[in-house]
Amino acid sequence: MRVLVTGGAGYIGSHAVRWLSSAGHDVWVFDNLGRGHRQAVPPDRLIVGELADRAAVEQVLRTRRVDAVMHFAAFALVGESVAEPALYYANNVLCTLTLLDAMRAAGVSRIVFSSTTATYGVPQTIPITEEERQAPINPYGFTKLVMERALEDYSHAYGLGYAALRYFNAAGATPSGDLGEDHDPETHLIPIVLQVALGQRPQVTIFGDDYPTPDGTCIRDYVHVDDLADAHVKALERLGPGSQFKLNLGTGRGYSVREVIEACRRVTGHAIPATVGDRRPGDPPELVADSRRAQAMLHWTPRYTAIDDIVRTAWTWHRKHPHGFGD
Ligand code: UFG
Q1: pTM, full prediction
Q2: Is the pLDDT of residue 279 over 90?
Q3: Ligand 1 centroid vs 187 CA: distance in angstroms?
């Protein structure tokens, strides 16, 4: 298939690009490089452009005769979305609607969409199934939920085939260590802890240890970025006209913040000083996926379930690229 990957220069997108190419697809990346990295993409596959520019997007879809879109381009920081909701509505909602318009005009009727566990808000039941009520508690989660609803409506009205993949905590890096996570500023737990191991930060602050969990720190389901990429390729290959897949992507295994830090100590051999600070507003105590539906529908099995294995791949990346892509 000829696939356009928006946000393909970002963390999850760049891994998906690699998996798509390995699976034999003809891949084009569309990215404005605002948060993505030129070095994360094969240079002859990168189209630098703005999704807000409908005509440009439509032209790319037509001239490359695109069959399907993988849409990663979005902002994805909860705290930022609370402080700057306008950015999130503009980028995650408006730009996605513009993309869908361009796709309709160009006759492209398949899309794999990056959704998130943040659409569930504070879940009633753990592990979280796709039937869980979606009640986001921040603008980021809400913008993703809005787009899930739009995809459903477009599917009914226009026959769009879509997969909304609700990621839990993306983590890790390609095992060779040449693609990985590089955010500025970095807010995610594993890269922050590994930056402490590298001596780039003095310590990690644990955001609260008074949660109703066994060790008092928040529990998350860390899913390897290559397993996410694999699920994307499988979802794409199963999409037909009018398909509506809404699938959780996680491992079904949760680790607390303290357990993650311990794993990082084991893998790196560094002491990694940690102190306890205040809770971070908007953090649910526990998010763990029931992803049996994705496993059954996509014939997908996450290869990485042990946190040490996930951390090890991230550590290889961080050691090889202590300053990320360096751009
Ligand atoms: N944490 C710390 N200290 C840090 C950084 C994080 O204790 O310095 C904790 C957080 O409080 C949280 C856990 O580590 O309990 C994981 O935090 P991350 O920031 O790595 O990930 P989140 O769970 O906050 O974010 C993920 C996705 C978001 C998504 C969100 C939904 O990255 O895109 O889950 O809750 F919106």
Answers
A1: 0.98
A2: yes
A3: 7
